[in-house]
């Protein structure tokens, strides 16, 4: 253990707790057995590091500080370290420390300490101190496991098959996340469901500590009940999960780049599936942050979009509600007439925006606060909104238009006999 490890623990555990405790007097009761050169202590803390730790402690209690040093096992190390501490107490300039990087074992121990201390001190946030594991080809991110699980159940429960992306760049970000029903080209009504994946929930050890462990963590899949209803109505389905793949050992894309890629994914699904299908009626449902991408689709494909789409439903979270571009009057008029936006009851728009209807059309305020619950509790409202805008199921056979039997041909006129005079 050297300077980097001691300073890491000092800055992340000792000093935050000391500031929160706010002592009236500080006693330093410690020795120099960790000092560099002390072979029995077998650590490597330099006099400069001792000086910095002393200076940090002297900022507490108005500088009222008592140093009761216990010594160590090497007289030379003790002398140099004690001198550095004394100079720091007298206000001498602190010696410069080189660039420090804590060891792997030190960061692990500090994190374990933080997990315990976070139960007692508000200033300790264990999640921010969790060591990052090295990402390599053997690493499987937790969301990818959830996606694989969802693909399996989507196939088994709803008959949804994976559809390949036409654009390689989209395959890099959304591989295996575009699913379709086998009747996507035959049904009268098609539902294009664009959604966030779901929320990871876990039991909290404390209000400051979140520990995801398999025995007390779970995934909230908000899509299942809606898909069950679509299947019962014999709608064909395009299901697009908008949680992007996490690049390994690469620079993360900016928020602007991520939004552009998400929009292009929705447009590609529209161009290659929804637009080319034989569906006479299309319903687009967006859940969570996916609403922004759907609004981009409407903006760029409006002329074809409005000819086939009968309803747009946006189930939003606390984020900004996607709005139609100001100066596109025709688009705004169509969207306000054919869309419904559902937002949580505590959405900040109610505190700051007095023109909600003029900006976002038909807005419904949910009784729930969390977007996962908003989708579930609003399902009857969504079902009613869609049902009112598509062909009644009674007029269809297995989800397709009834074929009327051809009318019987008119009987041929009876031959007439003419008598000659």
From TrEMBL:
InterPro entries on file: Arb2-like_domain, His_deacetylse_dom, His_deacetylse_dom_sf, Ureohydrolase_dom_sf
Record's protein name: histone deacetylase
Organism expressing this protein natively: Thanatephorus cucumeris (strain AG1-IB / isolate 7/3/14) (Lettuce bottom rot fungus)
Record localization: Nucleus
Main localization category: nucleus
Domain Histone deacetylase, chain residue ranges per copy: 1-89
Gene3D superfamilies documented for this protein: Histone deacetylase domain
Domain Arb2-like: 145-390
GO biological process: epigenetic regulation of gene expression
Gene Ontology CC terms: histone deacetylase complex
Enzyme Commission number(s) from the entry: 3.5.1.98
GO molecular function, one term: histone deacetylase activity, hydrolytic mechanism
Top-rank EC class of the record's enzyme: hydrolase
Keywords assigned: Chromatin regulator, Hydrolase, Nucleus, Repressor, Transcription, Transcription regulation
């Amino acid at each position: 253990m050297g300077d980097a490890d001691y300073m890491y623990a000092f800055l992340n555990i000792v000093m935050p707790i000391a500031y929160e405790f706010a002592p009236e007097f500080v006693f330093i009761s410690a020795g120099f057995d960790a000092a560099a050169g002390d072979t029995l202590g077998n650590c490597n803390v330099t006099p400069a590091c001792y000086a910095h730790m002393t200076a940090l402690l002297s900022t507490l209690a108005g500088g009222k500080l008592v140093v009761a040093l216990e010594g160590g096992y090497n007289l030379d190390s003790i002398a140099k370290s004690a001198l550095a501490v004394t100079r720091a107490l007298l206000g001498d300039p602190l010696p410069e420390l080189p660039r420090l990087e804590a060891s792997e074992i030190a960061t692990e121990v500090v994190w374990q300490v933080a997990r315990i201390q976070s139960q007692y001190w508000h200033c300790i946030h264990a999640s921010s101190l969790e060591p990052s594991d090295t990402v390599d080809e053997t690493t499987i991110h937790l969301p990818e496991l959830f996606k694989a699980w969802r693909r399996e159940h989507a196939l088994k429960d709803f008959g949804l098959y994976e559809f390949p992306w036409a654009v390689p760049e989209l395959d890099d970000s959304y591989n295996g996340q575009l699913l379709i029903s086998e009747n996507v080209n035959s049904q009268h009504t098609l539902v294009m469901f664009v959604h966030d994946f779901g929320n990871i929930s876990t039991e909290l050890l404390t209000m400051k500590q979140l520990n995801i462990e398999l025995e007390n963590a779970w995934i909230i899949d908000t899509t299942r009940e809606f898909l069950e209803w679509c299947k019962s109505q014999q709608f064909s389905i395009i299901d697009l999960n908008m949680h992007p793949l996490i690049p390994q050992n690469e620079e993360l894309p900016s928020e602007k780049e991520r939004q552009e890629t998400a929009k292009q994914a929705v447009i590609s699904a529209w161009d290659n599936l929804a637009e080319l299908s034989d569906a006479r009626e299309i319903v687009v449902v967006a859940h969570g942050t996916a609403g922004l991408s759907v609004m981009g689709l409407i903006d760029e494909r409006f002329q074809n979009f409005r000819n086939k789409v009968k309803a747009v439903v946006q189930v939003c979270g606390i984020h900004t509600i996607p709005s139609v571009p100001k100066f596109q009057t025709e688009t705004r008029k169509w969207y306000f007439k054919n869309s419904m936006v559902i937002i949580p009851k505590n959405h900040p728009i109610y505190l700051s925006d007095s023109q909600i209807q003029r900006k976002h059309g038909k807005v419904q305020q949910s009784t729930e606060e969390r977007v996962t619950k908003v989708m579930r509790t609003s399902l009857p409202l969504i079902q009613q909104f869609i049902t009112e805008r598509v062909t009644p199921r009674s007029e269809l056979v297995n989800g397709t238009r009834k074929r009327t039997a051809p009318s019987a041909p008119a009987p041929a006129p009876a031959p007439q006999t003419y008598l000659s005079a």
